């Protein structure tokens, strides 16, 4: 029961982090003061991008290692 709950929570976290990533990227693409290449080359943008990728990667690994 607990492992099922953990799987659902981690899938939810993956969806939420992807949603934040996509919303952030779309916001910066359609923003007139920022070019989206500038957003990726910006250090805070890169840091946020890698943190989100790391969160998604860890949750995927935790899902598949439980099986």
UniProtKB/TrEMBL annotation:
Transmembrane intervals: 12-30, 36-57
Transmembrane keyword on record: yes
Key words of the record: Membrane, Transmembrane, Transmembrane helix
Protein name stated in the entry: Uncharacterized protein
Organism per entry: Fructobacillus tropaeoli
């Amino acid at each position: 029961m607990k492992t099922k709950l953990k799987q659902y929570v981690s899938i939810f976290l993956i969806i939420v982090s992807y949603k934040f990533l996509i919303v952030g990227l779309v916001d910066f693409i359609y923003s007139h003061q920022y070019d989206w290449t500038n957003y990726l080359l910006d250090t805070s943008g890169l840091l946020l991008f890698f943190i989100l990728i790391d969160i998604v990667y860890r949750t995927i690994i935790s899902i598949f290692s439980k099986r």
